[in-house]
Design a protein that fits this description.
The complex is a heterodimer of chains A (283) and B (270). Chain A is mainly alpha-helical and 283 residues long. Chain A contains eleven helices and no strands. The radius of gyration of chain A is 28 Å and the shape is flat. The chains are: A mainly alpha (283), B alpha/beta (270). Chain A: Probably part of an ABC transporter complex. Probably responsible for the translocation of the substrate across the membrane.
Amino acid sequence: MAFQGLEISVTPVARPDGPPPPLSGANLRRGLEASARLATRYGLLLGFLGVWQVASTAGWLNPSVFPPLDRIVTTLAEGILSGALLDDIAISLQRAGIAFAASVAVGVPLGLAMGQMPVVERALDPILQLFRQTSALALYPVFILLLGLGETSKVFVIFWASLFPILLATIGGVKQVDGKLLEMARSFGAGRLTLFGRVILPAAVPAIFVGLRLSGTTALLLLIAAEMIGANKGLGFQVMNAQFNFRTDLMFAAIFLLAFIGLALNAALVAAQARFCRWSEPR
Amino acid sequence: MAPTAPPSSPSGTDLPRTLAASRGEVSVRDLYKSFTLNRAALAVLRGLNLSVAGGESLAIVGPSGCGKTTLLRVLAGLETPDRGSVLIDGRPVVGVGTERAIIYQEPRLLPWANVLANVAFGLEVRGTPRARARERARHYLRLVGLEAFETALPRQLSGGMAQRVGIARALTVQPEILLLDEPLAALDAMTKLTVQEELARIWAEEKVTMILVTHDLEEAIYLADRVLVLSRETELPPRLLDVPLPRPRDRNAPEFVALRRDLMRSFGLH
């Protein structure tokens, strides 16, 4: 009897006055869903920019503080096309790039070693914690005294600050390697080097990527601070300099450039992470 | 067949097995091992003696804490005994060795490597060139029926499939002795039966010595020539039980059922 009830509900019922199967309607609905997703993702951002533009042109906001977006974009395009901003972009990318590369070159190998050697980690941990908790900007004057006001001290302060995230993430990545996998590899006769290359290093890669992203963000943050304090070139300098000269359009152009660089760096690292860490993504 | 596989012999008869089985012989002499638990010494192995013939299949059963996994880990070379010795083909065991391979309760696959790379891992670690290692890995993947999953990542496999990959990885190094530490304990009932049948077939084909730790008495009787029963109480010495049943074994045969009942009674179960 129970099955009968089930059968009745499954049997298609003729609907003489029902609408025809909505074939094109399905496409339409998919399109609407896609645009709804886009709207929820970028709607607020577009709204914010729209309000800015309208409020500035209508005079609700002081246009000398918040110039309309079209003027900022024009200034940005002029600066790039004339090459005036390109110099600043180049020098900023060079400073942050060298410092970031150095922090990775030091942090990853050091972290891999420290994660594997508890003695080394025990010995270095207190001093690392002290250095990490001391703001890099507080040490910037010290670096300037030691290294001069030139490029070296700027690169060094950025390197200093971005070293710790990548170093600590790498140590963490090595320490959380599954001991059962290590035992499995050892039982097949793996020596120290094989164990490192075939188990420890690949297992630490996802954590290293997290460290790379944190260090990248830190490098850009410190870049601006260092350029605001003691530079005569670079995007950080331009932000500060434009503000002194009431060139708020140029100021915002430099700010937007910095935001774009940050977004691009993050997008590149996310793409690399997706490529190398597919196995560790949540299902 | 892999180029190094032994020549085929009529399976099912006992004679070729015992003749071919001069390798993979295990001899345990007066083995002691204790652990410190809450500052009290816990003696899990107390003067154990055991001989396993080459090509034999031995199951080790007993309540948890009786030392069956400890014994297996000592045989594997992952633990050092307090006293006594383990000889394999007459040579004392020091650490892990290439003539032994372990299958664990968890598959222990490298999550970033695909199935084929995981199966070839043991050989590659031992220095076999990559192409050769992968070729032999393919052979054993076919043996466990997973040749279609070469490029899959471990996370895409079911529990039974992952365990089969672990089995193939152990077989690929062509060990004389296969050590299995409750390999099917985490599988669901149906998968467990299937993999048990596969293990019985593989053991017959590969002619390896198989030492299997399990808490599943039926599994022990299904797979083993002899069952070693360990107990936690100091009074009861380890006992060995023969399983004189023809292969392939029928779980519902009266002799099978009777053996299982005997074994269960020895643990005070009905």
